[in-house]
Amino acid sequence: MVRTTVQELAAAVEELPRQYVVAHEQDQGLLAADEMPEPIPLIDLSRLTTAAAADEADKLRAALQTWGLFMVTNHGIEESLMDAMMSASREFFRQPSEEKQKCSNLIDGGGKHSEVEGYGNDEVVNQAEGLSWNDRLHLRVEPEDERNFTKWPAHPKSFRDVLLEYASRTKRIRDLVFRSIAKLLDLDEDYFLNQISSKDPGFARFNYYPPCPRPDLVLGMRPHSDAGLLTILFVDHDVGGLQVERDGRWYNVPAKPYSLVINLADCMEIMCNGIFRSPVHRVVTNAERERLSLAVFYAVDGETVLEPAPGLLDDERPARYGKFKAKDFGLSFD
């Protein structure tokens, strides 16, 4: 038995299953966004390593303090590679169900239990929360020796090579962003990189959001913050949907062709002692167009001990977080 996918539901149902409804008729506008107080900063990553770095660093600081995320251009991933990655993703999700199920994340015959890696969608854990209107393919890309290629699609044939190259580029972006954040905090520029172990996981998650008949009542992804260190998001060229929460209000994150959206995650907020924040975000649906995105998550091993960077603490700036293992607070993918 396999779990019904959202893609199959979208093609067949006239009335939404109630477990996907997160708003009700009387809550019209609940999923709408407010007008932006100011734009989300667009950072030219190539300038962070040049003589012009100061201006970009100021924009990066403002973004991390107010939004917890930022958009980047000139990030070192060629448009041709981004096109190839999105094309391979789209081709995977357009395959027949039986082909996609070869990568299934289900670990039993009853379709009730799943693992992190593989193709699938939400488990029904809490009916009150509502399910997310998306299907996804979740693949480990780090560490290299723990990649489970049995979960990677065999079709399209280009998928593996394109993802391996794409993941190598996002890893470089991660390292540059970590060094830039360390400099903003007056830490040694390799401070955060030195907290990473060779066992720390990285995952690529391909998200497919089919058109939804009631986008006013259904979320593509429920509100959450990311548990790890950093997330690098690549979205369809002009199909928006990502929203970020700030001061109790929701705002649309613009979709800019060939840009990336980068957000801090919970472990980084802890190590930054809350100076920079891990934003709560969600994805809304639309009735006309499918939406594809690829998020690369960099996380920590479950045994990693998390605490604020000592260089950020003094009598006037006490620790806002204790010292604990990531696995004890659900901040790892283990």
UniProtKB/TrEMBL annotation:
Any Pfam family: 2OG-FeII_Oxy
A GO molecular-function descriptor: metal ion binding
Protein origin, superkingdom: Eukaryota
Gene3D superfamilies named in the record: B-lactam Antibiotic, Isopenicillin N Synthase, Chain (2.60.120.330)
Record's keyword annotation contains rRNA-binding: no
SUPFAM superfamilies, per database record: Clavaminate synthase-like
Cofactor requirements of the protein: Fe cation
Keywords: Iron, Metal-binding, Oxidoreductase
Keyword Metal-binding appears in the UniProt entry: yes
Domain Fe2OG dioxygenase: 200-300
Homology family: Belongs to the iron/ascorbate-dependent oxidoreductase family.
Protein name in UniProt: Fe2OG dioxygenase domain-containing protein
